[in-house]
TrEMBL record:
Name of the featured protein: Glycerate kinase
Pfam annotation, one family: Gly_kinase
Keywords carried by this UniProt record: Kinase, Transferase
SUPFAM superfamilies for the chain: Glycerate kinase I
Family assignment from sequence similarity: Belongs to the glycerate kinase type-1 family.
Length: 385
């Protein structure tokens, strides 16, 4: 019997690999002869780097880079191992690691000035190590600069009408006159970018980066107008210089316009994060011939069907007609939508009323108990089959 265990992390308590290990241990006690294939996965959001490194036997690279407000921050990215279907010269970078909102205390957030330069530094470091395929996860950013800081770190010069380099931040883009590519990182021409993006916002306008995501980064109504106009000008100058016109493309507004930046200047392809991760870890090949797939995440609710990890795993397993069971830290409103999509059953792990801190602290024993009970019922079904 082959059982594939492909969960996301239970945020703030267990990594995806830890979740898989606990479930495998609980099942093995009831099904000692079964083969367990542990595949930690993610949906492109927080925790994606760790999950993909764990799933492919890769490594984490630590680097101090420029934070969103210009301060040094400790960041990291992953280089995938030989178990990756993309091969071993692939890096996975979460934008939030270098340019995330968590790096800036609330009182100091200012999207007029924040920069994505640190994300560019991580990309440059990967290129310097010979990496030629980069998976970039968007989301959680403190920036609204259209990826300007990122490309500056990669050698692009953004110049005003006097030929002076623009300062950091989205507001400065209003003064952009010319984009100089002479000094761009030479390896960019050989590198492909897959961009994990789960929003479809354009760069500008009422659904654009500034209007929709600016306020959570500290933007006032006046700042939103200023930033929106600056990004529109950025796109106009780029188009005039022959770069791809991506400002209206779905996802251009993601992560403060970083979607626009990677499509326009790095020829990146935007795809749902869960699809990129499933491909990278080779989930379809690992599910082949399985008798059961188990997936899960910290919370399964009505949003899970919209591209979260359990939905991605379910899609892969359904194509091969393998039954899927979901295990979650808790079940929220609309969780039954996963049953409507074809999941066989969903379970939460909380055995009794408890507060959040208690639930997080007891995640491991609670998960083990729940998985053990599920395994016992599964074995019972096999005995009476």
């Amino acid at each position: 019997m082959k059982i594939v265990i492909a969960p996301d992390s239970f945020k703030e308590s267990l990594s995806a690999l830890e979740v898989a290990e606990v479930i495998a241990e609980a099942f093995a006690a009831h099904l000692p002869d079964a083969q367990f294939v542990k595949v930690p996965v993610a949906d492109g959001g927080e925790g994606t780097v760790q999950s993909m490194v764990d799933a492919t036997a890769g490594e984490i690279i630590h680097k101090t880079v420029t934070g969103p407000m210009g301060q040094p921050v400790a960041a990291h990215y992953g280089i995938l191992g030989a178990d990756s279907s993309f091969g071993a010269n692939t890096a996975v970078i979460e934008m939030a690691a270098a340019s995330g909102l968590h790096h800036v205390v609330a009182a100091e957030r200012n999207p007029l000035l924040s920069t994505s330069y640190g994300t560019g530094e991580l990309i440059a470091d990967a290129l310097d190590r010979g990496i030629r395929h980069i998976i970039l996860g968007l989301g959680g950013s403190a920036t609204n600069d259209g990826g300007a800081g990122m490309i500056q770190a990669l050698g692009y010069q953004l110049l005003d009408k006097h030929g002076q380099a623009l300062p950091a931040g989205g507001a400065a883009l209003a003064e952009l006159h010319h984009i100089n590519v002479v000094r761009q990182h030479p390896a960019l021409a050989e590198c492909t970018f897959d961009v994990a993006c789960d929003v479809d916002n354009p760069l500008c306008g009422e659904r654009g980066a500034s209007a929709i995501f600016g306020p959570q980064k500290g933007a006032t109504a006046d700042m939103v107008k200023q930033l929106d106009a600056a990004l529109a000008h950025f796109a106009q100058v780029a188009e005039q210089q022959g770069f791809r016109d991506a400002q209206h493309t779905a996802g251009a507004g993601a992560a403060g316009g970083m979607g626009f930046g990677v499509m326009t200047f790095l020829e990146g392809t935007l795809r749902p994060g869960v699809d990129i991760v499933m491909q990278a870890v080779g989930l379809a090949d690992k599910v082949a011939g399985a008798d059961l797939v188990i997936t899960g995440e910290g919370r399964i609710d009505g949003q899970t069907v919209f591209g979260k990890t359990p939905m991605g795993v379910l899609r892969v397993a359904k194509q091969q007609q393998v039954p899927v069971i979901g295990i979650a830290g808790c079940l929220g409103e609309g969780a039954d939508k996963m049953l409507e999509q074809g999941m066989c059953a969903i379970f939460d792990i909380i055995p009794s009323a408890s507060d959040l801190a208690q639930a997080l602290a007891n995640a491991r024993p609670n998960l083990h108990r729940a998985a053990s009970n599920i395994a016992a019922v599964w074995r019972l079904g096999l005995q009476h089959h």
